C-alpha cells in the first residue's frame, strides 16, 4: 500500500489515485473491526453466542466486541423473532447507532417472520430497519453467520469513504 | 495577616442525623427502565425498577416481547406439525421440550406408558443431555453477567459437544424436532452411545473445573449468598418448579414423584437446597448436572438392543394409525397407503377429552394441557411455561436488593423468554 | 386413589354446584357449575392439602353458551395428588372471582387469561395486559380472531420518539437509500454557520 506523507503534490495528475488508496486503507480498517450490536431476541441469539464462543470464534474477524450499547456498535445483528411489541425499541436502537451502520437479519424469523405467521410477529425486520444481509436458517449455523459477516466486509470494502466528504473538500483532494 | 477559621466537618453519624431532622429533604425515587435490550436480562425482558439510590424499592417485570402466538398456532395445525414450535419454547433444551410434548399427546392417546423400551431410553438420554446443556448455558451466562467470563467459554465448549450429539441423532444442532407421536424421528446412529460416553468423560473434567472456578470462590459466594431468598411456602405459593423449587428445600421432582418413561428403573438422587438463596439454586443446578451424568451412564449401559441395536428393537409404537409406515409398505400395500395419507393430511386421530402432562424440564415443569374434541388438531393447547411462572416472583424478590444484584437474581432464576412468552 | 377421596370431600362440602368427579387417563376432574363460588371451592381445596396451583387455562367454546370455560389444575405437593376444576362463564358476564388470595401464582395466570381471552377477574389488584402491549384492542386467543391478526396501532411502549442528537454531524438523515448514500461523512451541521457568525457572540461569549 502506498504511504503518503505530504499533501503538496500535483493533484491534477495523482489526485484520484491517492483517494483510492486512502479509501482502500480506511475500508480495510473498517471492515476488519465491525463491532456487532447483538439484538439477540430468541433462539438465534444462542447460535450468535456460539459464534462468539471458542469453536466458531468471531474474534478472528475482529468482531468479538459485542457492544450492547448502540452508540459503540457498527453492525446490528437482529437474531430472533421480532414481535410488534419489540419493533418500537428495535427501531429506536437502530436510530441510536452512529453512521456507518449495517444490519444483518439473522435467521428466518428476522428475515421474513419465519414460521410464525401470527398476530404478534412482525413479518421481517426489514419492515422497520433497512437490512444489508439476510441469513436463512432456523437457526442458521454459526458458519452461515460468519459467511454473512464476510459479505458485510465485502460490502464495506467497496464503499467509497472520503469521496464527497467535507474533509476531502478542505484538502482539495477531489479537484481536477 | 491570615485569619484562622474553624471548619466543622461532622462525622457521618452526625450528618445522617442532620438529614433526618431536615424533613423537607425528600429524595425522589428514580424509575429506571432495565430495558428489553440488555446484556444481563437473558433475553427480551423489561424490568421497570424504582430505585432509592442503589437500593430497589419496587420491581415490575414486563414480559411479552417474544410472544409469538404459539397457542393459537397450535389450534391450526396437526399434533405432529406443532413439534418444531416446541423446539423454540425453551431453546436451550429443545430435546426436552420435544419429549415433553410427545408424551403429552401420547397421554391423550393413552399410550404414554406403553412406548417401546428403546424409545424410552433414548428419550431419557435426550432429556438428560438437554438438561446438561441448559444448565451449562444458564451457568455460563450467569457467571458472565456477574463478571466471571471464563466460565462462559468453558461451558460453551461443552455445549458444542452436546450439539454434536444432537446433530448425530436428529440432524440439527439446536432445533432438533426429534420426537414424534409414538416414537422418534429415527433411531440413533450406531456409535452414538460411544460418543455419549466420551462426552461424559470430558464433561466430568469440565464440570470439576467450573466447580473450582466458582463454588468456593470468595467473590462468587459473597455475591450470591443470602440474596433472593425464597422460603418453602413462598416457593409453593408462587408455583415455582424445577431447581428454583428444589433450591428452597421442597422435595418435588417429577422424575421421582410422577415417574414417566423409564425413570423408575434408573438410580439417581434429587438435589435439594436448604436456604433458598441464589447460591443454593446454583448448587442445585451443578448437582443436577452431576446426577444427569449418572443417568446417562446407566442408560448407555442398559439401553435395550445395545448401542448398535443389533436386535432391531423398534423405536416407534407399532400402530399404523399413529406411526408413519415404512415407505416400501406405503408404495405397495393399500392399508399402509391410507394410513400414511390420513396421518399426513389429518394428523393422529386423538380421542375427545383433555389431559395435562407435566415434564421435568431443566427450567422447571413444562406442562401441556391439551383439550381435544377428537381429530388431528387440538381444540385448545395450553403451554404451562415454567419460566413465565418463575418470573412472577421477581416483584417480590427484588425490593431490598441493590441494582448490582439484579443480574445475580435473574441468573439464579434461570429463565428463558422464548418459553415465558411462548 | 386419594385424589378421588379429596374430590368426594369437595363434592360433599359444596353439594350441587359440583358435578363429577370424572376420570380420563388417570386424571380426576370436577365441574363447578357456579363460577362465583370458585374462590370458596379453591380455598377449601387448599385447606385440604392442594397447596400448589399448577396452571389456570381458559377455553373458548365458540358458538356455545356459556362461551368461556376456565380450567384450574391443582396439586398437593405433600402426596402428589392432582385434581382439575372446570367452571363455565357466560360471554355477557365474562367475569369471575380471582383466586389470587389463595395462591399468589394466580396473579400472572389471570393476567394472561385476561389478555388472551378477555375474561375479567374480580378482586385482582392489577389486571392489565401481560403478553400483548397496553392498548392492544383485541383478545387474540378467541376463536373469532384470525391467526394472522387484525391491524392495530403499534405500541407506545418502548418510546418511539425521535432519538436525541438530531442535527448533529454524524446523524443519519432519514431516507430509504442504502448505507453508502446515507452515510453523513462529517457533513457540516445545519446550525454550525449560524453559530459561528452569531453577532451576539463577542470573544466567544454571549453579550
Please tell me about this protein's structure.
The complex is a heterotrimer of chains A (176), B (422) and C (207). In chain A, 41% of the residues lie in helices and 10% in strands. Chain A has 176 residues and is an alpha/beta fold. In chain B, helix 12 runs parallel beside helix 17 (406-413). In chain B, the strands form three sheets. A three-stranded antiparallel beta sheet of chain B has the order 1-2-3. The radius of gyration of chain B is 25 Å and the shape is elongated. Helix content of chain C is 21%, strand content 23%. Chain C is built from five helices and nine strands; from the N terminus they run αββαββββαβααββ. Chain C has helices at residues 2-14, 38-47, 106-117, 179-182, 192-196; strands at 18-24, 27-32, 52-60, 68-75, 82-89, 95-97, 120-122, 201-202, 205-206. The radius of gyration of chain C is 29 Å and the shape is elongated. The relative contact order of chain C is 0.10. Chains in contact: A-B, A-C, B-C. The interface between B and C is large, with 40 and 37 residues.
Strand arrangement, major sheet of chain C: 1-2-5-4-3
Q: Regions of chain B with pLDDT < 50 over 5+ consecutive residues?
A: none
Strand content of chain C: 15-25%
Tally of strands of chain C: 9
Q: Tell me the overall shape of chain B.
A: elongated
Major sheet details of chain C: 5 strands, mixed
Q: Work out the helix count of chain C.
A: 5
Mean pLDDT figure of chain C: 80
Q: With helices defined by DSSP (H or I, 4 residues minimum), what is the helix count of chain B?
A: 18
Order of helices and strands of chain B: HEEEHHHHHEEHHHHHHHHEEEHHHH
Radius of gyration of chain C: 29 Å
Secondary-structure content class of chain B? mainly alpha
Distance between the termini of chain C: 91 Å
Q: Tell me about the biggest sheet of chain B?
A: 3 strands, antiparallel
Task: Please provide the count of β strands of chain B.
Answer: 8
* Residue share in helix of chain B: 40-55%
Instruction: Bin the strand percentage of chain B.
Output: 5-15%
What's the quaternary structure here? heterotrimer
Amino acid at each position: 500500500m502506498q504511504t503518503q506523507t505530504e499533501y503538496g503534490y500535483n493533484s491534477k495528475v495523482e489526485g484520484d489515485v491517492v483517494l483510492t488508496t486512502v479509501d482502500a486503507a480506511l475500508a480495510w480498517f473498517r471492515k476488519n473491526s465491525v463491532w456487532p450490536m447483538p439484538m439477540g431476541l430468541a433462539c438465534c441469539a444462542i447460535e450468535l453466542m456460539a459464534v462468539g464462543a471458542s469453536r466458531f470464534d468471531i474474534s478472528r474477524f475482529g468482531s468479538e466486541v459485542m457492544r450492547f450499547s448502540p452508540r459503540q456498535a457498527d453492525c446490528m445483528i437482529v437474531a430472533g423473532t421480532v414481535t410488534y411489541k419489540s419493533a418500537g425499541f428495535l427501531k429506536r436502537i437502530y436510530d441510536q447507532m452512529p453512521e456507518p451502520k449495517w444490519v444483518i437479519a439473522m435467521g428466518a424469523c428476522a428475515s421474513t417472520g419465519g414460521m410464525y405467521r401470527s398476530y404478534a410477529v412482525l413479518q421481517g425486520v426489514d419492515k422497520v430497519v433497512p437490512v444489508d444481509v439476510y441469513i436463512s436458517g432456523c437457526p442458521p449455523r454459526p458458519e452461515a453467520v460468519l459467511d454473512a459477516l464476510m459479505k458485510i466486509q465485502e460490502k464495506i470494502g467497496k464503499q467509497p469513504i472520503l469521496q464527497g466528504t467535507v474533509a476531502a473538500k478542505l484538502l482539495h483532494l477531489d479537484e481536477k | 495577616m491570615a485569619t484562622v477559621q474553624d471548619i466543622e466537618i461532622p462525622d457521618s453519624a452526625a450528618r445522617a442525623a442532620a438529614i433526618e431532622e431536615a424533613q423537607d429533604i425528600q429524595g425522589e425515587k428514580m424509575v429506571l427502565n432495565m430495558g428489553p435490550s440488555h446484556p444481563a436480562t437473558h433475553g427480551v425482558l423489561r424490568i421497570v425498577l424504582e430505585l432509592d439510590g442503589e437500593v430497589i424499592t419496587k420491581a415490575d417485570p414486563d414480559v411479552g416481547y417474544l410472544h409469538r402466538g404459539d397457542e393459537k398456532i397450535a389450534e391450526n395445525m396437526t399434533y405432529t406439525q406443532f413439534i418444531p414450535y416446541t423446539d423454540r419454547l425453551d431453546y436451550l433444551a429443545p430435546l426436552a421440550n420435544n419429549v415433553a410434548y410427545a408424551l403429552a399427546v401420547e397421554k391423550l392417546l393413552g399410550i404414554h406408558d406403553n412406548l417401546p423400551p428403546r424409545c424410552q431410553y433414548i428419550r431419557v438420554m435426550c432429556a438428560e443431555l438437554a438438561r446438561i446443556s441448559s444448565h451449562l448455558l444458564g451457568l455460563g451466562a450467569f457467571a458472565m453477567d456477574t463478571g466471571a467470563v471464563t466460565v462462559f467459554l468453558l461451558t460453551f465448549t461443552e455445549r458444542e459437544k452436546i450439539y454434536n450429539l444432537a446433530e448425530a441423532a436428529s440432524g440439527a444442532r439446536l432445533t432438533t424436532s426429534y420426537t414424534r407421536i409414538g416414537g422418534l424421528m429415527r433411531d440413533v446412529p450406531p456409535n452414538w452411545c460411544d460418543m455419549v460416553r466420551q462426552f461424559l468423560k470430558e464433561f466430568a473434567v469440565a464440570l470439576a473445573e467450573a466447580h473450582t472456578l466458582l463454588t468456593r470462590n470468595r467473590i462468587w459466594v459473597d455475591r450470591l449468598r443470602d440474596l433472593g431468598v425464597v422460603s418453602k411456602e413462598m416457593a409453593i405459593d408462587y408455583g415455582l418448579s424445577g431447581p428454583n423449587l428444589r433450591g428452597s428445600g421442597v422435595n418435588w421432582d417429577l422424575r421421582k414423584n410422577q415417574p414417566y418413561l423409564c425413570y423408575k428403573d434408573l438410580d439417581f438422587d434429587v438435589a435439594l437446597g436448604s436456604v433458598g438463596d441464589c447460591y443454593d439454586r446454583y448448587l442445585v443446578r451443578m448437582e443436577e448436572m452431576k446426577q444427569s451424568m449418572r443417568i446417562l451412564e446407566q442408560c448407555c449401559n442398559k439401553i435395550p438392543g445395545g448401542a448398535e441395536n443389533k436386535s432391531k428393537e423398534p423405536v416407534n409404537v407399532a400402530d399404523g394409525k399413529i406411526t408413519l409406515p415404512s415407505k416400501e409398505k406405503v408404495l405397495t400395500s393399500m392399508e399402509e397407503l391410507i394410513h400414511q395419507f390420513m396421518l399426513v393430511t389429518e394428523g393422529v386421530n386423538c380421542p375427545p377429552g383433555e389431559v395435562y402432562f407435566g415434564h421435568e424440564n431443566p427450567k422447571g415443569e413444562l406442562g401441556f394441557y391439551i383439550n381435544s374434541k377428537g381429530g388431528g388438531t387440538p381444540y385448545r393447547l395450553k403451554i404451562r411455561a415454567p419460566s413465565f411462572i418463575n418470573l412472577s416472583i421477581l416483584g417480590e424478590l427484588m425490593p431490598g436488593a441493590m441494582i448490582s444484584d439484579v443480574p445475580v437474581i435473574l441468573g439464579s432464576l434461570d429463565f428463558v423468554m422464548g418459553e415465558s412468552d411462548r | 386413589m386419594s385424589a378421588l377421596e379429596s374430590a368426594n370431600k369437595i363434592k360433599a362440602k359444596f353439594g350441587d354446584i359440583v358435578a363429577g368427579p370424572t376420570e380420563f387417563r388417570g386424571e380426576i376432574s370436577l365441574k363447578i357449575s357456579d363460577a362465583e363460588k370458585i374462590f370458596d371451592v379453591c380455598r377449601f381445596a387448599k385447606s385440604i392439602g392442594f397447596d400448589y396451583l399448577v396452571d389456570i387455562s381458559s377455553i373458548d367454546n365458540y358458538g356455545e353458551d356459556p362461551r368461556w370455560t376456565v380450567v384450574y389444575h391443582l396439586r398437593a405437593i405433600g402426596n402428589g395428588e392432582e385434581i382439575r376444576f372446570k367452571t363455565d362463564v357466560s360471554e355477557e358476564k365474562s367475569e369471575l372471582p380471582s383466586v389470587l388470595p389463595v395462591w399468589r401464582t394466580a396473579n400472572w395466570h389471570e393476567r394472561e387469561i385476561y389478555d388472551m381471552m378477555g375474561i375479567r377477574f374480580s378482586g385482582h389488584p392489577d389486571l392489565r395486559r401481560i403478553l400483548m402491549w397496553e392498548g392492544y384492542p383485541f383478545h387474540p386467543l378467541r376463536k373469532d380472531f384470525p391467526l394472522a391478526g387484525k391491524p392495530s396501532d403499534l405500541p407506545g411502549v418502548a418510546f418511539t420518539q425521535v432519538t436525541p442528537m438530531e442535527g448533529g454531524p454524524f446523524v443519519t438523515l432519514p431516507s430509504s437509500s442504502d448505507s453508502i448514500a446515507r452515510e453523513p461523512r462529517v457533513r457540516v451541521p445545519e446550525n454550525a454557520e449560524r453559530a459561528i457568525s452569531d453577532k451576539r457572540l463577542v470573544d466567544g461569549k454571549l453579550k
